[in-house]
Specification:
By secondary structure, the protein is an alpha/beta fold. The chain has 20 helices and 8 strands. The chain folds into 2 domains: 356 residues, no CATH class; 147 residues, Transcription Regulator spoIIAA (2-Layer Sandwich). The strands form 2 sheets. It has a 6-stranded mixed sheet with strand order 4-3-5-6-7-8. It is found in: Membrane.
């Protein structure tokens, strides 16, 4: 159903741990296992509904409100939260908080330091965590040994399981996986909540996980589509992911999405079509039918260590530093998402990420950039004098460029900003004894559109200039803009002789006109 040829579908670390932490905040998976599973299926169902609805309604652009900076911060915060949640397994803590914020988690850890920690569990967890991190370090240092970090988790599980089995460390308080059901997942249609208090909880968790999963899958799909030079239809991907999760919720599955690591393996192996997902499914099926009993003595500590080693890489501090250097507003969005997740909750962090990204868009729309233009010596080119200090201002003429469409949201600001430029230049001309300002040229090539409020603002600007005995000149308005100006009759007021194709033509007209005046 999707358009990507390379996305490998399945459980991924971020979404898996995200849904796990959100579910644990609502239901204790040890004391209320049945409710926990039912809520997981309900959340998966609503995640699928959310994804499919966005695709069918062609609302894929909504995920664009999650900027790259916000995603970096959100992922980093989620990684910290997920890693902290694994401390209960690595330290062997039986009674652990269901909250996900860092303050509550650390309070729970230190409260149980005297009587809740299990030293055998700590030895297993810390030892294999060091091994896994060392394996990742080797893989980064030597590209030829890329397979070392790939097989390290499997080796860790085998060794830890064997160690617990021969020493019977589970008798000493080391928590193990215990029995895992064999066979194909049974139907779970009857387990999805459609009524009762858990519906709202499942919906909330599902929407969060669905959006995060969607963002990750589309990002992965676009990455590989660019590498292979084909187009990705984001709306088709959403419908495909949504359908998959809706069906999955009815067959005892939780939220799945595109996996970057699996997709990368597919890419490196030369896979050309989504049939590779079918092959993977067959392998997983064989595992469920044959191998699951072997994991009975696997300690929870090793699973926690694997998860911690996996999510550490999601804290991309180098990207955060780069964001700070490039764009301070993006950095605020990044840090807002990060601290929102770490100190409050995943939902709040996601909300902060979207809110700050949206606020940035509003700021850019309502406060567009304007620039005062000057002539580059020896040319007919006019550029921003802040960017090119050597550019010369034209006596008696003020040239202003508007770097945005002019809409109701910014029309008053644009008009006031232009008048402010004009006033400043008038004061400067008087101070240094230059000729009186007689012409205002508005360079409109970046103005891709204008609405009635924008036209009204230009009309107000024109009338203001008439009172000052100045002339408004327009330079290079686009086809859409000029059609609307003509429809509004504003071009008749300004005069078609005062609309030019280039700034240089407008300046030549102004200087000629000034020379003709007594």
């Amino acid at each position: 159903m999707g358009s990507s040829r390379d996305i490998a579908i399945g459980p991924v670390a971020v979404v898996s741990l995200l849904i796990g932490s959100l579910l644990q905040a609502e239901v204790d998976h040890v004391k209320n296992k049945e409710e926990y599973m039912r809520l997981a299926f309900t959340a998966t169902f609503f995640a699928g509904i959310t994804q499919a609805a966005l695709g069918f309604l062609r609302l894929g652009f909504l995920i664009e409100f999650l900027s790259h900076a916000a995603i970096v911060g959100f992922m980093g915060g989620a990684a910290i939260t997920i890693a902290l949640q694994q401390l209960k397994y690595v330290l062997g803590i039986a009674n652990f908080t269901r909250k996900t914020d860092i303050v509550s988690v650390m309070e729970s850890v230190w409260r149980s330091v005297r009587h809740g920690w299990n030293w055998q569990t700590i030895v297993i967890g810390v030892s294999f965590l060091v091994f896994l991190l060392f394996a990742k370090y080797i893989g980064k240092k030597n590209r030829k040994l890329f397979w070392v970090p790939a097989i390290a988790p499997i080796i860790s599980v085998i060794l830890a399981t064997f160690f617990v089995y021969i020493t019977r460390a589970d008798k000493q308080g080391v928590q193990i996986v215990k029995h895992i059901e064999q066979g194909i997942n049974p139907s779970s249609v009857h387990k999805i909540y459609f009524t009762g208090p858990f519906v709202a909880k499942g919906f909330k968790i599902g929407v969060v996980c669905g959006i995060v999963g969607l963002t990750e899958a589309v990002a992965i799909g676009r990455t590989f589509a660019a590498m292979k030079d084909y187009q990705l239809d984001g709306n088709k991907e959403m419908v495909a992911l949504g359908t998959m999760n809706i069906v999955g919720s009815m067959t005892s599955c939780y939220v799945t999405t595109g996996s970057f690591s699996r997709s990368a393996v597919n890419f490196m192996a030369g896979c050309k079509t989504p049939v590779s997902n079918v092959v993977m499914s067959v392998v997983v099926l064989l595992t469920l039918l044959v191998i699951t009993p072997l994991f009975k003595y696997t300690p929870n500590a090793i699973l926690g260590s694997i998860i911690i080693s996996a999510v550490i890489g999601l804290v991309d501090y180098e990207a955060a530093i780069l964001i700070w250097k490039v764009d301070k507003l993006d950095f605020i969005a990044c840090m807002g998402a990060f601290f929102g997740v770490v100190f409050v909750s995943v939902e709040i962090g996601l909300l902060i990420a979207v809110a700050i990204s949206f606020a940035k868009i509003l700021l850019q729309v309502t406060r567009p950039r304007t620039a005062l233009l000057g002539n580059l010596p020896g040319t007919t080119i006019y550029r921003n004098i802040s960017q090119y200090p050597e550019a010369n201002l034209t006596p008696g003429v003020v040239i202003v460029r508007v770097d945005s469409a002019i809409y109701f949201s910014n029309s008053n600001y644009v008009r006031e900003r232009i008048l402010r430029w004009l006033t400043d230049e008038e004061d400067r001309a008087k101070a240094v004894g230059l000729p009186k300002i007689s012409f205002l040229i508005v360079e409109m090539s970046p103005v891709i559109d204008i609405d009635t409020s924008g036209i009204h603002a230009l009309e107000g600007l024109y009338k203001n200039l008439q009172k000052r005995d100045m002339q408004l000149i327009l330079s290079n308005p686009g086809s859409v803009v000029i059609e609307k100006l003509q429809a509004s009759k504003l071009t008749e007021h300004i005069g078609s002789s005062h609309i030019f194709l280039a700034v240089s033509d407008a300046v030549r007209f102004c200087t000629t006109k000034s020379m003709q005046e007594p």
